[in-house]
Amino acid sequence: MNGVLIIDKPGGLTSHDVVNRVRRILDQRSVGHLGTLDPMATGILPLVVGSFTRLAQFYTTSEKTYEGTIRFGFSTDTYDAEGEPTSPPGEVALQIQDVETVAARFRGVIEQIPPPFSAKKIQGVPAYKLARKRKDVVLEPVQVEIMEFEILSVEGGRAHFRAHVASGTYMRSVAHDMGKALGCGAHLESLRRTAVAEFTLDDAHTLDELAAAAAGKPPVETGDPQAAALLDLFVHPRKLLPDFPSVSADELSAARIRDGRTVNLPEFSRARQVKVFAGQRDLIAIATRVAGSLFHPKLVLHTTTTPVHSRV
């Protein structure tokens, strides 16, 4: 079973919790995710299944879009609502103009210190492990980019926002730093991820929906009910990596590519990389142009079982 599945992660689960549940639902060991979400956060968690786990290398710098709420009045040790207060809680009433003025400082390329409770490593040890032991966590600033940061509304001590950010950006740190800038403390109260790379909430499904589909529910009139139900939940492989053109290889070319050999694709002579399909849905490789119209498979997606996206 191979494919890309977008889960609408519920709050309270880690990304690894979701991966483990999907492994059990699909009875598939090879499942990974394309970007961690904090347990408190909800929204898009892209999963790669089977041989498609090898596509993760193309998503390491994916941009992300969020909506959420910043709670002003006190800070926490985790920089979000799950942490312990690190300043006395207080009620504040902010004007949207004041919040927007501070928010403007965080747009563009900025220096950001990651939260102490994060996966950033200090001498090989994840920072959150040190923070849990109440050890000093000193993280160096990193350069991140926030392409969009819009304050949608302000109600008392809460600001609702939408942000479009580059990979590696922590919205928890943004909330914490805005609280310091306004002199009242702040933390991230809620966060929902609404887009990752080419994936949006329109592509997302709940764990319950996945479990029902894997059990063959709802039934279909023809074909394999389980396969058909699951097929509807996986992202169509031609939608993946939209910057790469798609090419349907004939039987001979497909055989050469599966063997890791170079093929001639004259109609794509200006493309740097292409997605190679055998038929409409079976993605067999990502190929890179080596010279002229010659392409060499950078990544061959070998399958030992019938892919979920072609079982129809």
Give a quick summary of the entry.
The chain is an alpha+beta fold and 312 residues long.
Would you tell me the overall average pLDDT? 89
Discrete helix count: 7
- Number of E-type strands: 17
Low-confidence stretches: 218-222, 303-312
User: What is the C-alpha radius of gyration, as a whole number of Å?
Assistant: 23 Å
Sum up the structure in keywords.
312 residues; Pseudouridine synthase; 3 domains; 10-stranded mixed sheet; elongated; disordered C terminus
Structure explained in plain terms:
This protein has 312 residues and is α+β, with helices and mostly antiparallel strands. It has three domains: 3-62 and 198-214, Pseudouridine synthase (2-Layer Sandwich), CATH 3.30.2350.10; 64-196, Pseudouridine synthase; 243-310, PUA domain (Archaeosine Trna-guanine Transglycosylase, Chain: A, domain 4), CATH 2.30.130.10. The chain has helices spanning 15-26, 96-103, 127-132, 171-182, 207-214, 225-233, 251-258, and strands spanning 3-9, 31-33, 42-49, 64-72, 108-112, 121-122, 125-126, 142-155, 158-165, 186-196, 199-200, 204-205, 246-248, 263-264, 273-278, 282-291, 294-300. The strands form three sheets. Strands 1, 2, 3, 4, 5, 8, 9, 10, 11 and 12 form a ten-stranded mixed beta sheet that branches.
